[in-house]
Amino acid sequence: MATILIVDDEKNIREGLNQSLMSNGFKTLMANNGQDGLFMIMNESVDLAILDIQMPKTNGIDLFKKIITLEKDIPVIFITGHGSVELAVDAMRLGAYDFITKPINLEKLELIVQRALKQKNIEKENQTLIVKLNAYEMHKSIIGESKAIKHLTGVIERVAPSKANVYICGESGTGKELVCDAIHSISGRNQPLVKVNCAALSPTLLESELFGHVKGAFTGADSHKVGRFEQANHGILFLDEISEVPTNIQVKLLRVLQEKEIERVGSGQPIPLDIRIISASNKDLKKEVEKGNFREDFFYRLNVIDIYVPPLREREKDVILLASHFFKTFCKANKKHLDVTPQFFSALDNYHWPGNIRQLSNVIEKVVVLNQTGKVTIKDLPAEIKKDIKVKETIEITLGQTLEEIEKKVIDETIRYCNGNKSEAAKVLGIGRKTLYRNS
Ligand SMILES: Nc1ncnc2c1ncn2[C@@H]1O[C@H](COP(=O)(O)OP(=O)(O)OP(=O)(O)O)[C@@H](O)[C@H]1O
Ligand SMILES: [Mg+2]
Question: How far, in Å, are 90, 210, 364, 366, 383 from residue 354 at the CA level?
Answer without folding.
Answer: 59, 32, 15, 17, 15
